[in-house]
Amino acid sequence: MERQSFAQKNTKKLWISTTGYRILIILKALLEKSCTIEELVEILKNNPVVNKSISKDTIRLAINTLKSAGCVIDRPTKKNNYKYELLKHPFTFNLSKKELELFLALREKYAREISWQEVLLINDLYDEFAALTCNEEIKTKVHESRPLAEINTQLLWEFSDSKLIGKKVQIRYISPEYGEEDIDIIPQRITYENGKIYLACHSFKYNRNSILNFERILKINVVNLKETYTSAATYEVMYEITGDSISTFELKDNEKLVYLSNEVIRVNAVVENEFLFIQRILLFGCNVKIISPDFFRRKLINKLKLIQKGYEE
Predict the structure, then answer these.
(1) Which H/E stretch holds residue 240?
(2) 86, CA 20 to 30 Å: which among 113, 146, 184, 225?
């Protein structure tokens, strides 16, 4: 069997089997796509390790070796454009049912602690891992259980483009109340909260800042790039955090730290979307206190009374 040495940084030599290496290169090539025998010869010729011309008989011998190892490789025929096609191989990534459940649970938990961009990357990575199992059931389960599965990712990347911020955009939206409708909005930013993606925007229909569930946005109809609109009026809320929430508290982009001690955190928040802000405040439970303004304090109290009434009924 052929061997070849390669100098390392410590001047020692590493001997490898070039025959075995050629077989691995051919396997890698066939995993990526079907190849003609001429294409395989060219791949080996251009490889920096092999770096020499290889005969077609050598390729055929390597293919037979892969078949002996358990690979199912279709022979070149006119029907498949005279290409070798790897149909099946034994070199798979095995996952038991329990391991798969833990694997998916880990993604579900981690997805709530990272950005939506990172969630999309994790989804792609999981799909690649699943593909290594060569198990269609596992591949389907991994793909269909991915976080943000209902999101149109192409549309998501379009709205993340800063060119749309402050522009008048008409979208097709599935309203919970009116069904499909075309509405005009001014996109402000994309937010990712509790495993859901929302589009913060100004709604011309209601003449106020709104929050849209991104899953309900079907498409962009028209974009007016000529004119830039300013956001609707906002207001500020000052609140305090105490108790156990201090150790886990994180400032949002629309918030500014006013005071910090071991007992209390005081924050000033610019509220653009009241719905999202109230959701955030409610998450702190009894560890939050609204300092100002009075109208927001009264609004939050009324909200809590309605929640309490709902449980009593």
Answers:
(1) strand 235-241
(2) 146
What pTM did the predictor assign? 0.58
* Residue 297 CB contacts under 8 Å (≥ 6 apart), including other chains: 290
Q: What are phi and psi of 84, to 5 degrees?
A: -80, 130
Joined together, the tokens standing for residue 43 give 């791949």
Location of structure tokens 């793909």: 143
Q: Structure tokens of 210? A: 């709104």
Handedness of CA 55, 56, 57, 63 (dihedral sign): positive
Q: Identify which of 232, 230, 190 has the alpha carbon closest to the alpha carbon of residue 209.
A: 232
Residues 60 and 22: their CA atoms lie apart, in Å, by: 12
pLDDT tens for residues 89-142? 888 788 899 999 999 999 999 998 899 999 999 999 999 889 888 788 999 999
